[in-house]
Amino acid sequence: MTGHHEVTQLGGERVRAFVPTPLPPDPPLVRSGGLEALLESAALALGRLDSVSTLLPDKSLFLYTYVRKEAVLSSQIEGTQSSLSDLLLFELDEAPGVPLDDVVEVSNYVAALEHGLTRMREGLPLSNRLVREIHGVLLSRGRGRDKEPGEFRRSQNWIGGTRPGNAAFVPPPHTAVIECMAALERFWHAKDDGLSAVLRAGLSHVQFETVHPFLDGNGRVGRLLITLLLCESGALREPLLYLSLYLKRNRATYYELLDRVRREGDWEAWVTFYLEGVREVAAGAVSTAERLSSVFKEDRARIESSGRRASSALRVHDALKVSPMRSMSAVCAATQLSFPTASSAMSLLAELGIARELTGKRRNRLFVYDRYLAILNEGAENA
Question: What is the CATH number that goes with domain 305-377?
Answer without folding.
Answer: 1.10.10.10
